Amino acid sequence: MVTAGIDVGALSIKVVLLDNREKILGYSILPTKPGVGELAQFAFDQALESAHLSKSNVAYIVSTGYGRRLVPFSNSEVTEITCHGKGAYWLCPEVRTIIDIGGQDSKAIRINSKGLVVNFAMNDKCAAGTGRFLEVMAHALGVELEEMGKLSLQAKKTLDVSNTCTVFAESEVISLIAEGHSKEDIIAGLHLAIAKRIVGLVARVGLAERVAMTGGVAKNMGVVKAIESLLGVTLLISEEPQIVGALGAALVAADRCEALLRPSQQVEVRSL
Amino acid sequence: MKDVIGEFAIVVQNPLQRARRWKEAGKGVIGCFPMYVPEEIIHASGMLPITLLGTEEPVSLAYKHLQTYICHLVQSNFELSLAGKLDFLDGIVFPGICDSVTCISDIWRRHHPYPFHHNIVVPERMDSLSSKHYLMEEFTGLKTHLEEFSSNKISVRSLRESIAIYNGDRALLSRLYQLRRADPSLFRARDVATIVMASMLMPKEEHIELLSQLLKCAPQAGQQANSKVKIVVSGYLCEGPELEVLDLIEGVGGVIADDDLYVGTRYFSTLVDEMLPPLEALVERYIKDVPCPTKYNPARDWADYLLSIVRRSEAKGVIIMMMKYCEPPGFDYPYLKARLTAKGIPHLFLEIEPPLSLERIKTRLQAFMEILRR
Q1: Looking at the complex, does the CB of residue B338 fall below 8 Å from at least one CB of chain A?
Q2: Does the beta-carbon distance from A80 to B363 stay under 8 Å?
Q3: A108-119 core/surface letters (b: 16 or more CB in 10 A; e: else)
C-alpha cells in the first residue's frame, strides 16, 4: 500500500510517498507560493514522477502544515505536531524529543516510547527563531541562505544579537555590519539567538534523549551546533530533515487507510 | 431557548448599550474593574454596576499613556474611556487586583476622570484576621462613598435584598453549569460564556428573568454516547474569553464540560452568606472565594480547585488560556502544570494576545485534540 503525506509549510511544500510504512519511494520539495492547491498538486506529481508511480497507486493522502486545509485532493488532514512526532520516531525509535524549526514555526515535541506525542510547545506570534528569521538576515547580510551554516563555522567570535523580534534583530544586524563586524561573526550570533529560543521551548516540554531535529533549518550546521552546545546533546538529523513532517503525514495516511479497510473487510465477511 | 440566548447575545455584542439605556432612564451606572468589587453595594445604592471587560477594538489612544506590556483588559478599557465611549458612566471602581489595575486608577483620574472614582485596596494576604478587618473597612468605605455620591442611604435591608438578588442569579448560573456538566453537548460554549458575560453587563433582575426562562425550556441530558472530547478551560483571569477560541475548541472535536474562568465559575460559584450581617458576609465571600492567583491564601489552592473541576466534569484535558502580560497567573502556571502532570491530566498552555491569530491557535488546539483522542 502506497500512501502520501503532503506538508504545506509557510515556506515550502513537501511531499513523501511511502510504501507499506517501510520505504520512502520518492519525495519532492517546492517553495510555497500563492495558489497552494495547484502547487501542492504540482509537488505531488513531481514526487510521483520521482517514484515512477501514478496517482492511482496511492491509497490514501494526508495533508499537514499551515496549508493542510488547502490541499483539495487529500483524504484528511492532521497537524504538523503529530506528523513530526511520527516521522522522527519512524526514522529513529529511540527519539523522545524533537526540535522542529520550519519556515515560520519552531516547536519542541515530546513523544513517548510508542512514538505518540505527549507534549509540545511552539513559538509565539513572532517569527524570531524560525527559518523566516534566517531568510530575512541572509537578505540583510547579502549572503545565500544555504551558505549561512558554513559561514558561521568560520566565525572568530559569536556576536550578541537579540532574539525577541525579527525586525529589531534585522536592524541590529545592519548596525553590526556598519560597525565593521564580519558576516561570519554576525551569523554565528544569529544562530546562537535562534538556539537560545529553542532551548526555552525544549525546557517547557522537558528534554529527554535522544533528540532529533527536523525541518529545513536542520540543514544549517551553524544552528545545529549552537543548539547542541547549549543542550549538551548530539542532535539526530536525517538525510533530508525537511521532509520529516510529510513522512509523518504519510504514516498517518497508512494508519487511517488501514482503519478504513478494517470495517469494510468485516462487512464482507458478514455478507459471505 | 435560542431566542433567549439571542437576547443575551445582543447585550454582549454591544456591551455598553444596556447600561447606556439605563443611564438614559435617569439612573446611575458604575463601571467596575473585575474581580474584587462587591457589586451588591452598588446595586443597593440604586445604581447599576457593570463590569468593564474591554472590547476587541484595536488599542491606539491608550499607548500615549501606557507601556505596551500592560494587559489587554487595562489597555482596552482605558482606550474606551479616552475615546469617550464610557462617558455615560457616573464612575469607576478599581479593585487592587494587580499592579496594572492599581496604577491605571491614577492615570485615569488624571486624564479622563468621572464624577465617582473609587479604589478598593484589597489585602495581599487573605488568610489573616487583619485582612478581614481591612477588607471590611474598604467595603464600608465604598458604601459610604456611594451614599455620599448618590445621596441615598444604603440600609442593611436594601443591602440584604441586593445580596439575595445576586445570590439568585449565582444559583441560576450554577444550575446552568450543572446541566452542562451532565451533558456538555446541550450548550455551545460561546452561549454559556455569553450568558455569564451578560450577567456582568445588564441589570441582575433582567438577567435572572431571562435565565429562568432559558432554564425552563433547556433540553434534558441526552443518553447517547458523545464522541466529543470533554475539556475544562482555565485562565482568562479577569477578561471574557474570546468566543472564537471557544468555537475553535468545539471545531476541532472538543466540548467544554466545565470551566475555571472569570467569565465562568469564578464569577458565580460562591454565594454570599445571607445569615451574616451583609457587609461581613460580602467580606467573607471575597476572602473565601475561589482561589485567586492575585492573592496569597494557602487555604485556597488553585491546583486543588482546578483538579476538582476536572474530576467533577470527567474532562480528559485542560486548556489553560493565559492572557499575555497578565502576571499573577503566569507565576502560578509552573505549579499548575506540575500538579496536572502528576495527576496524568494532559493540558495545553495557550497564550492569548488580542488581536488573535486564530490559525495559530487552531493548530495548537488541533494538535492537543490529536493527543487526547488516541
Answers
A1: no
A2: yes
A3: bbbbeeebebbb
Q: For an interface test with B, give the residue of A81, A109, A114, A251 to mutate (most B CBs within 10 A).
A: A81
Residue where the block lists cell 564580519: A182
Give, to the nearest 10 degrees, the angle between helix A131-141 and helix A166-178.
30
- Say yes or no: B69 contacts chain A, CB-CB below 8 A: no
pLDDT 10s digits, A2-54: 999 999 998 899 999 999 999 999 999 999 988 899 999 999 999 999 999 99
pLDDT single digits (tens) A96-128: 999 999 888 899 999 999 999 999 999 876 777
Instruction: Give me the interface pTM, i.e. the ipTM.
Output: 0.86
List beta partners, residue B259. B233
Q: Does A268 touch chain B (CB under 8 A)?
A: no
Q: What is the mean pLDDT of residues A187-194?
A: 93
Q: Cell for A61?
A: 493522502
User: Smallest CA–CA separation between B78 and chain A, in Å?
Assistant: 24
The structural domains of chain A, ordered by start, are 2-84+244-260 (3.30.420.40), 94-235 (3.30.420.40)
The 3-state DSSP class for residue A154 equals coil
CA B171 – CA A166 distance, rounded (Å): 50
pTM for the whole thing? 0.91
Helix (H) or strand (E) holding B134: helix B129-150
Q: Tell me how far apart the alpha carbons of residues B140 and B133 are, in angstroms, rounded to a whole number.
A: 10
Q: Is the dihedral of CA A55, A59, A65, A68 positive or negative?
A: positive
CB atoms within 10 A of CB A100: 30
